[in-house]
Amino acid sequence: MKTNKLFTQTxxxxxxxxxxxxxxxxxxxxxINTIGQVFPFKELSILPNLPDNILVKAYNxxxxxxxxxxxxxxxxxDLVTFRLSEELASGxxxxxxxxxxxxxxxxxxxxxxxxxxxxxxxxxxxxxxxTGEKNSIIEEEKNQLMASETRFEDxxxxxxxxxxxxxxxxxxxxxxxxxxNYLKVLEIDVRxxxxxxxxxxxxxxxxxxxxxxxxxxxxxxxxxxxxxxKAACSIFSPFDGRVNFIRDSLxxxxxxxxxxxxxxxxxxxxDQISRGxxxxxxxxxxxxxxxxRIIRVNRxxxxxxxxxxxxVTAEIISGSIPAGTVVKCSLQCDSEPFFKRIxxxxxxxxxx
Length: 352
Known about the structure:
Layout: H1 2-25, E1 27-49, E2 53-60, E3 65-73, E4 80-84, E5 93-94, E6 99-105, H2 106-129, H3 135-167, H4 173-202, H5 206-231, E7 234-236, E8 241-244, E9 251-266, E10 278-283, E11 288-304, E12 307-319, E13 326-337, H6 338-351
Antiparallel strand pairs: 1-2, 1-9, 1-13, 2-3, 4-6, 5-8, 6-7, 8-9, 9-12, 10-11, 10-13, 11-12
């Protein structure tokens, strides 16, 4: 009896050892099932970042990178409106460079009006300064100049004669000095008469006109700056795309020339994920399916619903599922020995 019992126990042990050996070397098929979401190639979002600015952001889902970002800031208390192009509607298409909408600032518009008004006033002032007086006034000033020049020439002749007389000591030094001083006074009168004639003929002095011209140049620069600032508030499409109104954005533009699936994978399965793997994508609610291929594996670990995961991006290569759809993703991974699966299970339990 003891011999039979020992034989039975030995036999059972050998059978269990044989089964365990088979399990240790047997490879098992491995499948990863997860939930993901479909995204377009590019997405442009215009977001109201109240109360101080509006944010325009273009995101490339293929490269997982922001391609373009612009923030339009406004002064506190400014009345800002966003006006969409009249042709836009949900589902409509836009070509690259088409106008999406315009951001209008009451303060900028008021500054443009103020500067334009000041510029028009300065130009009118310059025109008035550059314009001569009436012909009758000009003729009167010409006559005044001729009279001053005649008096100056007559006094010049008198001074010349008195200088000759002084050489012969026929007049005193005081008399000659008095005559010369009077000649200088008449010379000043001639210069003054010429200046008055120039003013009435051509307008104000050149110095006064130059000051006005400088003011005009300064105002034109201010106006150009404000006009450029206002033009920067016009938003144009950076790519061909389809219009959507989703989430909290004022408007969203999608480039769906290609689509991508973004899905999480648990950290314990990281060594089973690599670029080029096929992914089966299904959207049961709309009864659509597609095939995708992994193009990017982001190994940065994040916490999602209490689990450590990393994110994977796959490009849809066949089939069509609309951007924004939540989908089921399945990956058929390489076979691996059973004991490795057991070790991974224990490691996963330990980590979590």
